[in-house]
Amino acid sequence: MKQNRFFYVYISEVKYMYEIKKKNFSIQPRERLLEVGVENLSEQELLAILLRTGSRGEAVTELAGKILKRFGSLSNLRRASISEFKMIKGIGIAKAAEIQAMIELGKRVQAANPEYHGKVMRSEDFGRQMITELSGYEQEHLLAFYLDNRNRILKRKVIFIGTVNSAPAVPRDILAQSVRIMATGIVVVHNHPSGNPDPSDADVAFTHDLNQSCRMLGSTLVDHLIVGRDRYYSFRERNRL
Predict the structure, then answer these.
(1) What are the E-state strand segments in the chain?
(2) Phi, psi at residue 227, to the nearest 5°?
Protein backbone atom coordinates (compact mmCIF):
# COMPACT_ATOMS: atom_id res chain seq x y z
CA MET A 1 0.00 0.00 0.00
CA LYS A 2 1.31 3.44 -0.86
CA GLN A 3 1.65 5.79 2.04
CA ASN A 4 1.89 9.56 2.08
CA ARG A 5 3.95 11.61 4.48
CA PHE A 6 2.99 15.11 5.43
CA PHE A 7 5.47 17.91 6.06
CA TYR A 8 4.28 21.20 7.62
CA VAL A 9 6.08 24.41 6.68
CA TYR A 10 5.55 27.76 8.44
CA ILE A 11 6.11 30.99 6.53
CA SER A 12 5.26 34.46 7.82
CA GLU A 13 2.44 33.47 10.18
CA VAL A 14 0.80 31.35 7.45
CA LYS A 15 0.87 27.51 7.56
CA TYR A 16 1.41 25.66 4.32
CA MET A 17 1.07 21.88 4.02
CA TYR A 18 3.25 19.97 1.59
CA GLU A 19 2.09 16.49 0.63
CA ILE A 20 5.28 14.58 -0.02
CA LYS A 21 5.07 11.16 -1.59
CA LYS A 22 7.64 8.78 -0.21
CA LYS A 23 8.34 7.21 -3.55
CA ASN A 24 8.86 10.39 -5.57
CA PHE A 25 10.09 13.02 -3.14
CA SER A 26 12.42 13.42 -0.19
CA ILE A 27 11.97 15.75 2.73
CA GLN A 28 15.47 17.24 2.77
CA PRO A 29 15.43 20.63 0.99
CA ARG A 30 18.59 19.96 -1.03
CA GLU A 31 17.20 16.68 -2.30
CA ARG A 32 13.85 18.28 -3.09
CA LEU A 33 15.68 20.94 -5.09
CA LEU A 34 17.34 18.27 -7.20
CA GLU A 35 14.13 16.32 -7.66
CA VAL A 36 11.53 19.03 -8.27
CA GLY A 37 13.61 22.08 -9.23
CA VAL A 38 14.56 25.18 -7.30
CA GLU A 39 11.51 27.12 -8.50
CA ASN A 40 9.21 24.66 -6.71
CA LEU A 41 10.77 25.05 -3.28
CA SER A 42 9.17 27.17 -0.57
CA GLU A 43 10.89 30.22 0.87
CA GLN A 44 11.53 28.23 4.03
CA GLU A 45 13.25 25.43 2.14
CA LEU A 46 15.42 27.84 0.15
CA LEU A 47 16.53 29.58 3.31
CA ALA A 48 17.22 26.23 4.98
CA ILE A 49 19.59 25.30 2.16
CA LEU A 50 21.51 28.54 2.64
CA LEU A 51 21.71 28.08 6.42
CA ARG A 52 23.00 24.49 5.95
CA THR A 53 22.69 23.53 9.63
CA GLY A 54 20.22 24.15 12.42
CA SER A 55 20.91 24.86 16.07
CA ARG A 56 21.08 22.57 19.07
CA GLY A 57 17.87 20.57 19.21
CA GLU A 58 16.39 22.36 16.17
CA ALA A 59 16.40 21.22 12.55
CA VAL A 60 17.57 23.66 9.92
CA THR A 61 14.07 23.82 8.37
CA GLU A 62 12.64 24.80 11.76
CA LEU A 63 15.28 27.51 12.15
CA ALA A 64 14.48 28.84 8.66
CA GLY A 65 10.78 28.92 9.50
CA LYS A 66 11.50 30.78 12.73
CA ILE A 67 13.47 33.45 10.82
CA LEU A 68 10.70 33.99 8.27
CA LYS A 69 8.07 34.14 11.00
CA ARG A 70 10.15 36.65 12.98
CA PHE A 71 10.39 39.12 10.09
CA GLY A 72 6.97 38.49 8.61
CA SER A 73 7.89 39.05 4.95
CA LEU A 74 10.79 38.81 2.54
CA SER A 75 10.70 42.60 2.24
CA ASN A 76 11.40 42.94 5.98
CA LEU A 77 14.02 40.21 5.79
CA ARG A 78 16.05 42.03 3.16
CA ARG A 79 16.18 45.16 5.32
CA ALA A 80 17.20 43.37 8.53
CA SER A 81 20.53 44.18 10.17
CA ILE A 82 23.13 41.79 11.55
CA SER A 83 22.01 42.72 15.06
CA GLU A 84 18.38 41.89 14.27
CA PHE A 85 19.35 38.48 12.92
CA LYS A 86 21.44 37.73 16.01
CA MET A 87 18.41 38.30 18.22
CA ILE A 88 17.02 35.00 16.91
CA LYS A 89 18.12 32.00 18.93
CA GLY A 90 20.34 29.82 16.76
CA ILE A 91 21.61 32.68 14.58
CA GLY A 92 25.15 33.84 15.29
CA ILE A 93 27.25 36.39 13.48
CA ALA A 94 28.38 33.87 10.84
CA LYS A 95 24.85 32.85 9.80
CA ALA A 96 23.67 36.46 9.99
CA ALA A 97 26.48 37.54 7.66
CA GLU A 98 25.69 34.69 5.25
CA ILE A 99 22.03 35.70 5.06
CA GLN A 100 22.92 39.35 4.39
CA ALA A 101 25.45 38.32 1.74
CA MET A 102 22.82 36.13 0.08
CA ILE A 103 20.31 38.97 -0.02
CA GLU A 104 22.84 41.43 -1.43
CA LEU A 105 23.99 38.95 -4.07
CA GLY A 106 20.37 38.42 -5.12
CA LYS A 107 19.90 42.17 -5.51
CA ARG A 108 23.04 42.43 -7.64
CA VAL A 109 22.04 39.50 -9.82
CA GLN A 110 18.65 41.15 -10.38
CA ALA A 111 20.28 44.49 -11.21
CA ALA A 112 22.62 42.76 -13.67
CA ASN A 113 19.78 41.16 -15.63
CA PRO A 114 20.72 41.80 -19.32
CA GLU A 115 17.08 42.02 -20.43
CA TYR A 116 16.37 44.65 -17.80
CA HIS A 117 19.38 46.80 -18.68
CA GLY A 118 19.07 46.24 -22.40
CA LYS A 119 15.64 47.71 -22.99
CA VAL A 120 12.81 49.41 -21.14
CA MET A 121 9.76 47.19 -21.36
CA ARG A 122 6.27 47.96 -20.09
CA SER A 123 6.00 50.31 -17.11
CA GLU A 124 4.64 47.39 -15.08
CA ASP A 125 7.68 45.19 -15.79
CA PHE A 126 10.12 48.01 -15.25
CA GLY A 127 8.36 49.14 -12.09
CA ARG A 128 8.55 45.65 -10.58
CA GLN A 129 12.24 45.47 -11.37
CA MET A 130 12.84 48.80 -9.66
CA ILE A 131 10.89 47.73 -6.57
CA THR A 132 13.34 44.85 -6.23
CA GLU A 133 16.29 47.21 -6.49
CA LEU A 134 15.19 50.32 -4.61
CA SER A 135 12.50 49.44 -2.09
CA GLY A 136 14.95 48.66 0.72
CA TYR A 137 16.84 51.97 0.58
CA GLU A 138 16.47 54.33 3.53
CA GLN A 139 17.59 57.31 1.45
CA GLU A 140 15.85 58.67 -1.60
CA HIS A 141 17.59 57.75 -4.84
CA LEU A 142 16.85 59.43 -8.16
CA LEU A 143 17.92 57.52 -11.28
CA ALA A 144 17.67 58.36 -14.97
CA PHE A 145 17.62 55.86 -17.83
CA TYR A 146 18.52 57.32 -21.22
CA LEU A 147 16.95 55.59 -24.24
CA ASP A 148 17.39 55.48 -27.98
CA ASN A 149 14.44 55.52 -30.39
CA ARG A 150 13.87 51.78 -29.83
CA ASN A 151 13.69 52.17 -26.06
CA ARG A 152 17.09 50.54 -25.61
CA ILE A 153 18.99 51.86 -22.62
CA LEU A 154 22.01 53.86 -23.68
CA LYS A 155 23.03 54.82 -20.17
CA ARG A 156 21.87 54.56 -16.58
CA LYS A 157 22.86 57.32 -14.19
CA VAL A 158 22.31 58.00 -10.50
CA ILE A 159 21.29 61.66 -10.45
CA PHE A 160 20.98 62.19 -6.75
CA ILE A 161 21.05 60.41 -3.40
CA GLY A 162 19.17 62.50 -0.89
CA THR A 163 18.25 62.59 2.75
CA VAL A 164 15.49 60.48 4.26
CA ASN A 165 12.93 63.16 3.43
CA SER A 166 14.00 64.61 0.09
CA ALA A 167 16.02 64.23 -3.08
CA PRO A 168 16.22 67.70 -4.62
CA ALA A 169 16.90 67.71 -8.34
CA VAL A 170 16.17 69.95 -11.28
CA PRO A 171 15.57 69.04 -14.94
CA ARG A 172 18.98 70.32 -16.05
CA ASP A 173 20.71 67.68 -13.90
CA ILE A 174 19.00 65.03 -16.00
CA LEU A 175 18.94 66.71 -19.41
CA ALA A 176 22.64 67.58 -19.52
CA GLN A 177 23.49 63.90 -19.89
CA SER A 178 20.65 63.37 -22.37
CA VAL A 179 22.05 66.02 -24.71
CA ARG A 180 25.57 64.65 -24.34
CA ILE A 181 24.68 61.15 -25.51
CA MET A 182 21.84 62.23 -27.85
CA ALA A 183 19.17 60.19 -26.12
CA THR A 184 15.66 60.37 -27.56
CA GLY A 185 13.83 59.28 -24.42
CA ILE A 186 14.22 59.35 -20.66
CA VAL A 187 12.75 57.32 -17.81
CA VAL A 188 13.30 58.72 -14.33
CA VAL A 189 12.82 56.63 -11.21
CA HIS A 190 12.99 57.50 -7.55
CA ASN A 191 12.01 55.74 -4.35
CA HIS A 192 10.06 56.87 -1.32
CA PRO A 193 11.73 55.49 1.84
CA SER A 194 8.38 55.81 3.61
CA GLY A 195 7.13 52.92 1.48
CA ASN A 196 4.22 54.92 0.02
CA PRO A 197 4.80 55.63 -3.71
CA ASP A 198 2.00 58.16 -4.14
CA PRO A 199 3.46 61.38 -5.60
CA SER A 200 3.83 64.51 -3.52
CA ASP A 201 3.07 68.00 -4.88
CA ALA A 202 6.82 68.40 -5.40
CA ASP A 203 6.94 65.16 -7.41
CA VAL A 204 4.10 66.35 -9.63
CA ALA A 205 5.74 69.75 -10.20
CA PHE A 206 9.11 68.16 -10.94
CA THR A 207 7.54 65.77 -13.46
CA HIS A 208 5.72 68.61 -15.20
CA ASP A 209 8.87 70.73 -15.45
CA LEU A 210 10.96 67.82 -16.70
CA ASN A 211 8.34 66.89 -19.29
CA GLN A 212 8.23 70.45 -20.61
CA SER A 213 12.03 70.66 -20.74
CA CYS A 214 12.27 67.37 -22.63
CA ARG A 215 9.82 68.63 -25.24
CA MET A 216 11.83 71.81 -25.72
CA LEU A 217 14.92 69.70 -26.46
CA GLY A 218 13.10 67.33 -28.80
CA SER A 219 13.25 64.44 -26.36
CA THR A 220 10.50 62.44 -24.63
CA LEU A 221 9.90 61.82 -20.96
CA VAL A 222 8.77 58.21 -21.35
CA ASP A 223 7.82 57.78 -17.70
CA HIS A 224 8.45 58.85 -14.14
CA LEU A 225 8.22 55.93 -11.72
CA ILE A 226 8.01 56.28 -7.96
CA VAL A 227 8.89 53.14 -6.04
CA GLY A 228 7.44 52.24 -2.65
CA ARG A 229 7.84 49.19 -0.46
CA ASP A 230 5.80 46.78 -2.54
CA ARG A 231 4.17 48.86 -5.27
CA TYR A 232 5.04 51.65 -7.68
CA TYR A 233 3.40 54.72 -9.18
CA SER A 234 3.71 55.41 -12.92
CA PHE A 235 2.89 58.87 -14.31
CA ARG A 236 2.59 57.25 -17.75
CA GLU A 237 0.05 54.68 -16.60
CA ARG A 238 -1.98 57.38 -14.87
CA ASN A 239 -2.01 59.47 -18.08
CA ARG A 240 -0.20 62.33 -16.37
CA LEU A 241 2.43 62.79 -19.07
Answers:
(1) 4-11, 14-21, 141-147, 153-161, 185-191, 220-227, 232-234
(2) -105, 130
Does domain 4-109 correspond to CATH entry 1.10.150.20?
A: yes
* Beta strand pairing call for 4-11 and 153-161: unpaired
pTM: 0.56
Q: Where in the chain are the domains? A: 4-109, 120-234
pLDDT at residue 30 is higher than 70: yes
Q: Would the pLDDT of 24 be above 90?
A: no
What topology is assigned to 120-234 in CATH?
A: Cytidine Deaminase; domain 2 (3.40.140)
User: Stretch 68-85: mean pLDDT, rounded?
Assistant: 85
Residue-level pLDDT at 110: 63
Query: What backbone torsions phi and psi does residue 60 show, to the nearest 5 degrees?
Result: -65, -35
For residue 102, count other CB atoms closer than 10 A to its CB. Answer: 15
Distance CA 56, CA 69 (A): 19
**DSSP string covering 200-226:** PHHHHHHHHHHHHHHHHTT-EEEEEEE
